[in-house]
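Quick one:
INPUT:
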């Protein structure tokens, strides 16, 4: 059975956007239709203007503390949100076959958030950032890469 057959869903995501796509074409000529789109609200946290300082055990010594990466936190939260949405779609819409395409960091966050039921329907995971490509090209790129997995 071809992995990108008709009816197979693809989640194409990065740290800011997620596209839920369904293949309406054939494995040779995929035609991905957009079923749902999510976008991150971004880093809406209050930001500090400079790194903090911490009192060392020595006399009058201060050590600098690393700045919090608010963008990274926002991307991780978005990946968790996408995973929760995906879990709901698998449960309610009956998605039976799924391919996930995302950069490695986003893919890691998605793996951490998906349920066992969702994990059971995942056919392949492709670590690429295809979110900025047109849908027709995304389908072709997934079809090429999925055979290598």
């Amino acid at each position: 059975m071809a992995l990108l057959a008709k009816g197979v869903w693809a989640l194409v995501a990065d740290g800011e956007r997620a596209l839920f796509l369904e293949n309406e074409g054939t494995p040779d000529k995929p035609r991905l239709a957009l079923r749902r789109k999510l976008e991150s609200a971004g880093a809406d946290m209050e930001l500090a203007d400079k790194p903090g300082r911490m009192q060392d055990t020595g006399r009058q010594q201060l050590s600098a503390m690393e700045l919090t990466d608010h963008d990274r936190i926002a991307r991780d939260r978005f990946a968790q949100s996408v995973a929760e949405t995906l879990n709901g779609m698998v449960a309610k819409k009956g998605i039976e076959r799924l391919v996930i395409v995302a950069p490695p960091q986003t893919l890691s966050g998605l793996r951490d958030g998906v349920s066992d039921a969702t994990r059971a329907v995942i056919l392949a995971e492709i670590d690429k950032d295809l979110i900025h490509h047109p849908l027709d090209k995304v389908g072709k790129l997934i079809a090429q890469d999925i055979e290598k997995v």
